[in-house]
């Protein structure tokens, strides 16, 4: 049975055409303007039928609840603050309960022109997940995204709305790129997602010795699994390995600049196994902690 929201989309001036039980999103129903924007919400179980895209790109921004995209090859779950692009060749259906999201649909030709004119294709492709553009906005970023989309919704199918669309896409690119960072230990390369850059900078200012991977997941508002995939993709290591590297760097500084016993340093950094710490330290610095201290220490020591 087709949901009430699905019927409501038809009532809004549908851009959907039912063909052989597959809904097709078509570019001809958007033109002559540059986009169509739907706001879809439900407080009960909801599904949207399997559909495909014809010369258009779809973007989804979820700001309440959870929605699952059922692609032919896998399912993709969106959480609050997630922003996902659906490829032209994708077939997918949706399901969810108690959610609120915006669905932005652009002509493929307009999207390609936007990327090419500003040389942004590599930026957006660097944020792809399973071949689809994906990013997560922090709570602070969600505020402006929601405000911009609400304005786009209000002024769609007007020349003013088309201008607002260009501004929104530029703002999106700006958030992905971010300002250049200097003097930070954290890797804030433009190719990393905004939420990850924020996390690394935040971790750089916190007491790293008390942090765990679970703390990092909470701080970034991502699941541990998503955190792990992203770290592997952009840094080539797991979150736990990255966290250990930061702690080992802290240990090296303490060995150089303090006379604390190695065991005290190990315990202060959250390690509960001296042998494990020694193996990690030697792997990162090439020599055991005691030898490192003898070679680097600036203060008397008694280890």
List keywords for this structure.
303 residues; alpha+beta; Jelly Rolls; Arc Repressor Mutant, subunit A; 2 domains; nine-stranded mixed sheet; 9 strands; elongated
Strand content: 25-35%
Total individual domains: 2
CATH class of the largest domain: Mainly Beta
**Helix segment tally:** 12
Strand tally is 9
End-to-end distance: 74 Å
- Helical fraction equals 40-55%
Which residues sit in consecutive blocks of at least 5 with pLDDT less than 50? 1-23, 180-190
Main β-sheet description = 9 strands, mixed
On the 0 to 100 scale, the average pLDDT is 78
How many whole angstroms does the radius of gyration measure?
24 Å
CATH architecture of the largest domain: Sandwich
Protein name: AraC family transcriptional regulator
Keywords: DNA-binding, Transcription, Transcription regulation
GO molecular function, one term: sequence-specific DNA binding
Domain HTH araC/xylS-type: 197-295
Topology:
Elements: H1 4-11, E1 16-19, E2 22-26, E3 36-54, E4 56-71, E5 75-78, E6 82-86, E7 92-107, H2 108-117, H3 121-125, E8 128-129, E9 132-136, H4 139-154, H5 159-177, H6 194-204, H7 213-220, H8 224-234, H9 239-257, H10 262-268, H11 274-285, H12 289-296
Parallel strand pairs: 2-3
Antiparallel strand pairs: 1-2, 3-7, 4-5, 4-6, 4-7, 6-9, 8-9
Helix pairs in contact: 4-5
Give an account of the 3D structure.
Keywords: DNA-binding, Transcription, Transcription regulation. By secondary structure, the chain is an alpha+beta fold. The chain folds into two domains: 4-177, Sandwich (Jelly Rolls); 183-303, Arc Repressor Mutant, subunit A (Orthogonal Bundle). It is 44% helix and 25% strand. It has helices at 4-11, 108-117, 121-125, 139-154, 159-177, 194-204, 213-220, 224-234, 239-257, 262-268, 274-285, 289-296, and strands at 16-19, 22-26, 36-54, 56-71, 75-78, 82-86, 92-107, 128-129, 132-136. Strands 1, 2, 3, 4, 5, 6, 7, 8 and 9 form a nine-stranded mixed β-sheet that branches. Strand 1 (16-19) and strand 2 (22-26) form a beta hairpin. Helix 4 packs antiparallel against helix 5. The longest helix is centred in the middle third of the chain and has 19 residues, at 159-177. It is elongated and about 75 Å long.
């Amino acid at each position: 049975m087709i949901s009430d929201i699905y019927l409501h989309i038809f009532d809004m001036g549908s851009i959907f055409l039912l063909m052989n039980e597959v809904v097709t999103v078509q570019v001809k129903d958007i033109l002559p303007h540059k986009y169509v924007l739907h706001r879809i919400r439900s407080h009960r179980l909801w599904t949207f039928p399997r559909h495909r895209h014809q010369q258009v790109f779809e973007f989804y921004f979820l700001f309440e609840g959870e929605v699952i995209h059922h692609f032919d090859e896998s399912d993709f779950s969106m959480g609050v603050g997630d922003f996902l692009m659906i490829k032209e060749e994708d077939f997918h259906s949706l399901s969810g309960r108690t959610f609120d999201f915006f669905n932005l649909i652009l002509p493929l030709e307009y999207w390609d022109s936007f990327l090419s004119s500003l040389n942004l294709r590599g930026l957006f492709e660097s944020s792809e997940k399973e071949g689809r553009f994906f990013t997560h906005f922090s709570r602070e970023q969600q505020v402006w995204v929601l405000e911009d989309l609400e304005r786009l919704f209000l002024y769609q199918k007007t020349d003013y709305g088309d201008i607002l669309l260009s501004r929104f896409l530029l703002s999106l690119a700006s958030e992905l790129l971010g300002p250049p960072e200097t003097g930070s230990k954290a890797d804030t390369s433009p190719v990393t997602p905004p939420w990850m850059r924020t996390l690394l900078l935040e971790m750089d200012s916190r007491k790293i010795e008390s942090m765990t991977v679970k703390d990092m997941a909470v701080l970034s508002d991502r699941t541990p699994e998503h955190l792990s995939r992203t770290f592997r993709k952009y840094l080539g290591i797991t979150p736990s390995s990255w966290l250990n590297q930061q702690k080992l760097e802290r240990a090296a500084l303490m060995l150089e600049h303090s006379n604390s016993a190695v065991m005290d340093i190990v315990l202060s950094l959250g390690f509960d196994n001296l042998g494990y710490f020694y193996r990690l330290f030697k792997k990162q610095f090439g020599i055991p902690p005691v030898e490192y201290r003898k070679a680097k220490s600036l203060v008397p020591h008694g280890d």
